[in-house]
Amino acid sequence: MSVTMIIAIDGPAASGKSTTAKIIADRLDLLYLDTGAMYRAVALYLSAKGIDSADENALRSALEDIDIYFQQIDGSYHIFLNAVDVSSDIRVPHITKMSSEVACIREVRERMVEMQREIAGGHDVILDGRDIGTVVFPNADYKFYLTASLDSRALRRFKEQHEKGIDCDLSEIRVQLAWRDENDSQRAFAPLKKADDAIEIDTTHLSIDQQVEGILQVITATTGERQ
Ligand code: CDP
User: Fold this and answer.
1) In the chain, which residues have pLDDT < 50?
2) Measuring from atom 13 of ligand 1, which residue has the nearest CA?
3) Whose CA is nearest to atom 16 of ligand 1?
4) Which helix (H) or strand (E) covers residue 34, if one does?
């Protein structure tokens, strides 16, 4: 039986999880799974179809109709929702807010977790999200919890949006991040929290290279022990 490696990276919004995870996936030749993009895709689907997430029947049938897969195109990761590339559409502010709202719904979470386990199945994989080390893969080989101050996360997200040519306001981004942190941490199902056995890394004063190296050191120092 082949043994697979699972790396879980959790943490609050804009803490550098996906940038870090993508680089590590590349360096260690792992499959990368952006679970946040999946909640965003659900939000986009409901929004586009005008489905009220409080309507249980409509939500159930929407979740049955949703097909999500990822593809790497020219080195960058794309998400497809029912065969349509929605990689940019899922990043607009109202979908970002809505993703955190739909992520509170138990049925949505159950379906996403099922899909995440299916996609990851049998692969060496690195996943980033909020509940990877606590719920999706509680037995992951490595668990990291990335944090950073609210100000530095807001600034990073602002720069990221700015570089993409998206008009945005730093103080508004800060307010939205704080709202999402609170909403994600307080929800009843699979709230954002550090797994007891996760290694916490405060990236406030770290460069991307430094945080990647920190994680790689932990992994390479112990891979010999894995069997
Ligand atoms: O990139 P950013 O950190 O801003 O957010 P994201 O990872 O794309 O996640 C968007 C939203 O999806 C979060 O605010 C969470 O509410 C939700 N999410 C979740 O509940 N569980 C996950 N495993 C991943 C994301």
Assistant:
1) 1, 225-227
2) 100
3) 100
4) strand 31-34
Distance (Å) from CA 100 to ligand 1 centroid? 7
pLDDT tens-digit profile of 48-95? 999 999 999 999 999 999 999 999 999 999 999 999 999 999 999 999
For ligand 1, atom 3, name the residue with the nearest CA: 13
Instruction: Say how far apart CA 130 and CA 50 lie, in whole Å.
Output: 27
Residue spans of alpha helices (H) in 3-75: 17-28, 35-49, 56-65
Q: Provide the edge-to-edge strand list for the sheet that holds 84-85.
A: 68-73, 76-81, 84-85
Helix H or strand E encompassing 164: none
**pTM of the shown model:** 0.95
- Tell the burial category of 46 from Cβ atoms under 10 Å away from its Cβ (0-12, 13-18, 19+): buried
Which ligand 1 atom is the nearest neighbour of the CA of 34? 7
Q: Contact, 114 vs 71, CB < 8 A?
A: no
21 lines ligand 1 (CB under 6 A): no
42 token code pair: 């659900």
